[in-house]
Amino acid sequence: MKKLFTLAALATLVSACSNSDWRTASREPAGIAPNPSEEQEAVIEVYGADAFSWRGWFAIHTWIATKEANADEYKVHEVVGWRIERGQPALHTYNTATPDRFWYGAKPEKLLSLKGAQAAELIPRIEQAVVDYPWKDQYTVFPGPNSNTFPAWVGLQIPELGLDLPFSAIGKGYAN
């Protein structure tokens, strides 16, 4: 009976781990970011979503989005490990109207949100921290540097952000 239970538990685990197909997982916006065509103030937001596949049981993936006052789009800054495998830097910046997209099927949540004059003052410092990030071309799941090391490092460079990543942001401590 014990072997049967163990086998059933293992089958469930393998099934759960293999359900996620990154090619078909949702990348739709979650609807939690201010619409840049409506929000004229500067905005800084940090998002976190369950990491891809079974990793999401333990860890999140985090990213930073900034929008300057009157901008039509956000700049999203994030570190993605598979870019290294393709010969690209792990740190990636892109423009989008939807910085709150699902992370391969996982709905993001806001970990930080700043607007107005404070955000406008801090955005240039975030841009400089992106340029200065020391591990642009490195990625290691554990202990880091990884996707959580990047926002943690930015937060250390700019304490005024008040960024406090959760325990599940594995790799955040690498930045210390």
Can you tell me the number of structural domains? 1
Question: Strand fraction band?
Answer: 15-25%
Number of helices: 4
Low-confidence parts:
4-19
Terminal CA distance reads: 48 Å
Shape label: globular
Give the averaged pLDDT, no decimals: 87
Rg (C-alpha, Å)? 18 Å
Strand count: 5
* Structural class computed from helices and strand pairing: alpha+beta
Lateral strand order in the biggest sheet: 4-3-2-1-5
Helix content bin: 25-40%
Main β-sheet, in a few words?
5 strands, antiparallel
Helix-strand topology string: HEEEHEEHH
Notable traits:
176 residues, alpha+beta, 5-stranded antiparallel β-sheet, 4 helices, 26% helix
Structure description:
This protein has 176 residues and is an alpha+beta fold. The chain has one domain. 26% of the residues lie in helices and 20% in strands. The protein is built from 4 helices and 5 strands; from the N terminus they run αβββαββαα. Strands 4-3-2-1-5 form a 5-stranded antiparallel beta sheet. The relative contact order is 0.18. About 9% of the residues have low confidence.
